[in-house]
Amino acid sequence: MHVSERLLQLYADTNATTRTKLQDVIKQNLGDGKSLRMSFEELTGTTLESLPTEEKSGSDFAAWIKDGKKDATFLPYYVSLLEMHEDVLNKEATVPQSAPIDKTTVKKTPIVDKASGPASEPTQKTEERATAAKPRYTPEIPVPSRAERAKYQRTIEPARPRRKSGKWIGVLFLLALLIGGGYIGYPYVMDLLEPKQEAKVVEETPKPDPEPVVQEPETNYVWLASKNVNLVSEPNGTTVTYIGDIGDRYEILKEQDEHVEVNLDGTTAWVPLDSITTDWPTRDLTDSALLDWVNTNLNNNWLGESIPDFFAMNEAALTETIGVPYGRETDALNAYAFYNDGFFVIQQDKVHAIDWTNTQTTRDVFSPLGEPVLETDDAVVYESETYSLRLFEGTNGQTRVRLTEK
Predict the structure, then answer these.
(1) Distance between CA atoms of residues 21 and 24, nearest Å
(2) What is the DSSP string of 93-131?
(3) What is the C-alpha separation between 71 and 258, in angstroms, rounded?
(4) What pLDDT score does 235 carry?
(5) What's the rounded Cα separation, in Å, for the pair 288 and 284?
(6) Mind listing the pLDDT tens digit for each residue in 48-65?
(7) Between residues 298 and 163, the one the model is more confident about
């Protein structure tokens, strides 16, 4: 069973008071810093070689709990101690804490003498005032000389007497012009005087331009193809942002270094390529057939309401319906409300999934649902139009069933 799945199972089996006492003992034991392997040996009296030798302090552990248990370094250490919490809390031996070493040192700051140069005496500069002569007036346009002006003078000559013959020629030309113009322009004048019917202009109604078709960009998705996949903060990183389950669907943002970046409800995370699939077939399984299977093959006495009604509830309505949970945990994406026979996954203040824990349901019981969408050695996924039904098999023979609204 994956260490994250063990943690969920242990949270379902222990109460909040026990977990708080264990966390206080761990913080006190780690103190200012020691390796996780040594701390585990002091608390349990046994050795776990798989734990790292890296030193961690009690404040590091408190920050890890507050941050939602994202760093994978503390996870196996904490889960192993939670499994042995009775031995740890009943152990009377205490581990002496080493006194903190004051590493504060006082460094003498050398005094550097600054040589001061000779002060330069200010010198006074004598300003001379030059008396500027008043500029002489210069006209914008130069005045021409007398000789140039003489060139422009016109010689006045007496007018010549006009010839009388030219007067008659002009009168005859004018009469000919009037007669010829009247002859030529008569049809045009008559055409102007006759009334004309106004032509009706039929205006065509402009046809509206067809509305452009907005093509939405195609969104690419991937599905997790294995159980308990670590979504890390960067490619090949060790900081776990979220632990996903088989069948979870995410939107692809980009691909880099054998990882894909996915949109995790506004937060980006990276998934290894060998843990995802883009082939997700559809089946002819109806919502009613899937819900009938859930009502027939799972223990629903602890719910008391119809299964679809829970997916319309927020956390306050859930508490009002079936009571206050005995435990509550959060991570980067969800909140988990724990009850005796299972827990609810709450996403954005709305019930997203219901988990039945410690069941004895085997994959053979799922056979009436037909062919699964995805099947691995330790998990099976069935889907209808609205719901996703998943079976998680543990190494101890116990199974967990999850119903998720898509």
Answers:
(1) 5
(2) --PPPPPPP-----PPPPPPPPPPPPPPPP-PPPPP---
(3) 21
(4) 93
(5) 12
(6) 888 888 888 989 888 888
(7) 298
Cα separations (Å) of 204 from 199, 207, 210, 211, 315?
Answer: 15, 9, 18, 21, 63
Tell the residue number behind the tokens 């057939």, with chain if given.
Answer: 289
For residue 76, the Cα-to-chain-centroid distance in whole angstroms is: 30
Percentage of residues in the chain having pLDDT higher than 70 = 71
Find, among 70, 401, 378, the residue nearest to 230 by Cα.
70
**Which stretch of DSSP H or E encloses residue 328?**
strand 327-330
Range in 111-115, 297-301, 318-322 with the lowest mean pLDDT: 111-115
238, 72 Cβ separation under 8 angstroms: yes
Strand partners, 13: none
Is 260 in contact with 282 (CB distance < 8 Å)?
no
306, 284, 288, 286: which is closest to 354 by C-alpha? Answer: 306
Contact call for residues 350 and 314 (beta carbons, < 8 A): yes
The answer to whether the CB of 261 falls within 8 A of the CB of 234 is no
> What percent helix, strand, coil does the chain show, rounded to 5?
30, 20, 50
Q: What is the pLDDT of residue 48?
A: 86
pLDDT tens for residues 64-118? 888 877 677 888 888 888 888 888 888 744 544 444 444 443 343 443 444 344 4
Residue ranges of E strands in 197-288: 221-224, 229-232, 240-244, 249-256, 259-264, 267-272, 276-277
Q: How far apart are CA 145 and CA 162, in angstroms?
A: 39
Please give the mean pLDDT across all residues of the chain: 80
d(CA 154, CA 146): 15
Which is higher by pLDDT, 139 or 25? 25
The tokens of 213 are what? Answer: 């078709």
| 181: its two tokens | 């113009």
Amino acid 139: pLDDT: 55
Instruction: Return the HEC string of 130-148.
Output: CCCCCCCCCCCCCCCCHHH
